Structures are given as C-alpha cells and as structure tokens.
C-alpha cells in the first residue's frame, strides 16, 4: 500500500507526456506537479530519509514553477530545484559518510568528466541566458555538486537516478536557451526531458527506500 503513490505517480507522469509541449494552463500545471507530490508521499510513507522526502517535495514545487509562463515563474521553479538538489546532496553525503571532495579519489574519471561538463557551460550555455545568467550559473553549480555527491555511493540506482536528472536538465538547457521555437527537435526534446526527469527522480526515491 505504501508503494501505491509511486505507481500512481508514474502513471500520471506517463499520461502527462503528450502535454510536455502544450501552452501553460492550470490543468497542465496540476498534472505536472502531481507525480513528484506522490513520490514525496511515497517517501514519507516508507520512512525514507527526511532530506530525500523534502527534496522530492521541493521538486514538485519546481515542476509547478516551470509549468507557468514568465521569468518570475521560471526563477521560482529554478530556486525550488536548486534547494531540492542541496537536500539531495545532504542525503547522498549522509549515505556515503564521507566529504564531497573524496569523490575525486573514489570515482576520478566520472567526477572529472562531470566537472568538465560544468565548466563547458560557460561556453555553450551562459552567453545565451541573458538576464538569467547568474541564476543559471548557480543552478549549474548546485546540480553539479549533487551529481558529484551521488558518485560517492556504490554504483546503483541512486547514482543512475542522479545521472538521468542531470541529463534531463542538460537537454532542458539546450531546449530553453539554444533551440528556436520552430526547431524540428523541440517536440522530441520535451519528451526526453520529462522521461529522463521522472525516471531519475523515481530512481533517487527507490535508492532511498532500498538502502
């Protein structure tokens, strides 16, 4: 019974897929917010770590913000996700029982590759973000730190979940700041962003439940 919210959240997320590229509406916002609210409920009911549950809840708030139009709503969503990543960092560090910088001795190749990706955003992303430049830069640093903290764990579902979350945000950054509105890959990008995001969050949740 405690796992029912996960299955329901996944079903709602799957049903939302055709709406990923539709105009903002209250129906779309509610539909987009529900899966992570249900994931947070599942985490609570299964006694998952409090930082994980809170991170899932903040992600739901982030989903709501990004489902609305306007720069203010975008900044609200971005801030909620940044805080969610901070909580995921605390969650992963608590599981790993070691400081973040140890990742460069435990998993040096993926850690350096991730660091290189973060640095590269100054070339292909930052110049195209306009007045959102610094908020985006801060978010990139926070999600990068989340990825590094996940690499401290033995390779498994939590690590894969964090990787899919980062991949989703990477595609989102390209879609928002580098694609024209009439780009032929816009529709596919929306599907990939949502699919990788939901899969990543579900894996992060399941990793917290099974550990």
From TrEMBL:
Chief location category: membrane
Annotated localization: Membrane
Membrane topology of the entry: Multi-pass membrane protein
The keyword Transmembrane is assigned to this record: yes
Record InterPro entries: TMEM86B-like (IPR012506)
Pfam family, one: YhhN
Keyword terms of this UniProt record: Membrane, Transmembrane, Transmembrane helix
Segments traversing the membrane: 6-24, 36-61, 73-96, 103-126, 138-167, 188-209
Domain of life of the native organism: Bacteria
Family: Belongs to the TMEM86 family.
Protein name: Lysoplasmalogenase
Organism: Aliiroseovarius salicola
